Adenylate kinase (Halorubrum rubrum), 207 residues
Amino acid sequence: MSHRILLLGAPGAGKGTQSAKLAEEYGIDHVTTGDALRANKDMETEYGTPRSFMEAGELVPDPVVNEIVKAALADAEGFVLDGYPRNLDQAEYLSEITDLDAVVLLDVDDEVLVDRLTGRRVCEGCGANYHVDFQPPEEAGVCDECGGELIQREDDTEETARERLEVFAENTEPVIDHFREEGVLEEVDGEAPPDEVFDRIRDVVEE
């Protein structure tokens, strides 16, 4: 049986981790907006191609993103959608083009999210990812893979993390409300250990 799953949650809630596990568990596609845009940069829409906006450093407009996501979902036997919809217009469009089997919100307190986002460290040499609490290197500040220096990216500072959470709340809370009003939203405690979170999502999907 193919599943059509939507995962919602703030930056740092664990959507990417859980989406990858769901895709593997059920043999379905992990569809993210970024991947879908990169894979279809030259797809013609009445508003132009995604490439024309990306190369100009501009946000790809909703109608173009909608067309790309629609194409990605049409090609999938089943899917877990991560990072879309980002606003109410996209949510309403999604409800028009597909019937979702499960809509799951990963609920995580803002302070926990800030800790998760600001704890990430990246190797300057090979790009390997670590986290000071959840996935620390064997030696502090040094990459296990290549011995390179671990740095904090500019977009992982506390100020940037809080800005990202504000933007999420402003744009995506209406999306959450939309699915809650449709009676399809299920909330899962995203602060539990990842395996527990996965088990709870799987229970929702298989209900």
